[in-house]
Each structure stands twice: as structure tokens, then as C-alpha cells.
Amino acid sequence: MSQPGNRVVASLCARERLLLAIKDVAAGNYSNEILELTGPEYPEDIRELAEAVGLMMVKIEAREDHLERLLETIKFNSLNTVTAVACALGARDAYTEGHGERVGAYAERLARRLGLSETETEHIRTAGILHDIGKIGFSDHVFSGEDSSMNQQMLLEIRSHPQWGYDILKDLNFLGPALDYVYCHHERMDGKGYPRGLTASEIPLGGRILAVVDCFDAMTTNRPYQKGKTPQEAFSILGSLADTALDSDLVDLFIDEIESGGMEE
Questions:
Q1: d(Cα 59, Cα 54) in Å, to the nearest integer?
Q2: Is there a single domain that holds both residue 152 and residue 59?
Q3: pLDDT at residue 5 in the model
Q4: pLDDT tens digits, one per residue of 51-91
Q5: Same domain as 143, residue 30
Q6: Out of 52-56, 206-210, 250-254, 259-263, which region has the weakest mean confidence (pLDDT)?
Q7: Average pLDDT over the chain, rounded to whole?
Q8: Residue 58, in any domain of the structure
């Protein structure tokens, strides 16, 4: 038969365990410790409080799970919306139609050839799809498809589209580094690009990837005033731009990728 003193000590130990378990739950650490204190070997008041806290913990977990699923839905819908906006550029410019999807596909292929993680590869693919979303702000004159001489206003619009794209997307926090890749896809290795004049390693890898694949798709796409170049012609131009405008290592890898895997439709 247990002594009264032993029961008092056991009760105090149980209360200390309960207090620690409640502190853990309050801190967001949902362990099974609180549930273990609901067993019949513990005093009734300990069991009742442990059961109440355990029930609260289960409800909190359920609400957190619901909130996480809700946030994923919002993220999915938001990304679909901005992607639809980017794709809608094709309604204003036949050349732009399909360009974002192809750049995204090329960028993903180059990222995989580099052995980047799935998460980083997805960021780069997403940036490829969205990289020209800032062109939604172009005037009708820029989108006219005419081979007219470039005036200062048109040049300003064209050089502004990375900044406009950044401004459109900047509040979508879930884009992560993809936002910066959109922002700097027209930067050059020699610092003569735009909008910030970044040089070499200052340009994030995702931005350097987009610069290569965007250039290739632009050259190989038919335009109203110019027939698209053959892959070999485009390869030659990419090579001539290596180390001045483009990352030479990425140019070599991308050429290997196209020669082995073919072009995107």
C-alpha cells in the first residue's frame, strides 16, 4: 500500500509535467506528453486539465491545417491569375503568344541540367513564364508589329518592362526568388543591361538563365518583319554574346541541351 507522502510527491511530479506540457503546447510544440497525462494513474484534476488542453491542441492543429490548405489555394489561384495575364499578352502581340511558356520550359530544362533543386527549378520555371508580364504596360505603338524606327519613348517603354513586371508581382511573397529573376532578366554580364546595371555574379543565377533562354527563343521565333533564325544561327549569336551579355558557361550548357533535347514547340 502506497504511503500518503509518496502520493503527494507523485501528484506534484504530475503537476510539474502538466505545467511543462501546457507551456510546450502554448509554444506550438504539440507532443503526446499532454495526452499521456490523461491516464487513469493520474489524479482526477490532472486528467481533466490534460484532457481539456489536449482537446484544445487538436482543435488548433485542425485550424492550422485548414489555414495552410487555404493559403495554398490562394497561392495557386493568384499564380494562375498572373500567369493568365502574362499569357494574355498574346492577344496584343502574336510574337508574344507562347513565348513565356517556351522560356519557362527552356529555363526549367537548363536548371535541371545544372542539377538545381526541385524548388529552385520551379522558381526559375515560374520566372520564365512571367518574365515579360511588365509588357502589359506597353503602348499600342510598341505592340503594332511594325518595323518602325525606335524612338526615345518606345525605347523607354521597352527598358521599363522589367521594373513594371517587378511592380506587378512584388506583393506575391510566395514567388520567392522568382521575383528577382523577373526583375533582372535583361541585365548583362558586362553591366550594360537594365534596369540596374548589374554585373556578372551580381546577377542571380536564375536571371542569367532567363537571359540565355529568352534570347534564344526571341531569335528563333518568326516575327511579322523577320523570319526566325535556325538553331545553328542562334547558337552562333549566343556564342558571340558570351561573357559580354550572357554567361558563357550557361550558353554552352544550353546549346548542349537543345542539341540533345530539341526545341520547344
A1: 9
A2: no
A3: 47
A4: 888 888 887 777 777 777 776 776 777 777 777 777 766 66
A5: no
A6: 52-56
A7: 84
A8: yes
Q: Residue 217 has what pLDDT?
A: 95
- Are 39 and 126 within one domain? no
DSSP secondary structure of the chain: ---HHHHHHHHHHHHHHHHHHHHHHHTT---SHHHHTTSTTS-HHHHHHHHHHHHHHHHHHHHHHHHHHHHHHHHHHHHHHHHHHHHGGGGT-TTTTTHHHHHHHHHHHHHHHTT--HHHHHHHHHHHHHTTGGGGG--TTGGG---PPP-HHHHHHHHHHHHHHHHHHTT-GGGTTHHHHHHTTT--TTS--SSS---GGGS-HHHHHHHHHHHHHHHTS-BTTBPPPPHHHHHHHHHHHBTTTB-HHHHHHHHHHHHHH----
pLDDT for the residue 49: 85
Q: 123 and 208 share a domain?
A: yes
- Residue 72 included in any domain: no
For the domain that residue 102 is a member of, what is the CATH number? Answer: 1.10.3210.10
pLDDT in tens, 171-189: 888 899 999 999 999 999 9
Q: Are residues 56 and 116 in the same domain?
A: no
Indicate if 126 and 237 belong to the same structural domain. yes
User: Is residue 81 in some structural domain?
Assistant: no
Number of separate domains in the chain: 2
Beta bridge partners of 226: 223
- Compute and round to an integer the Cα radius of gyration of the chain: 29
Average pLDDT over residues 6-29: 72
**Domain residue limits at 15:** 4-66
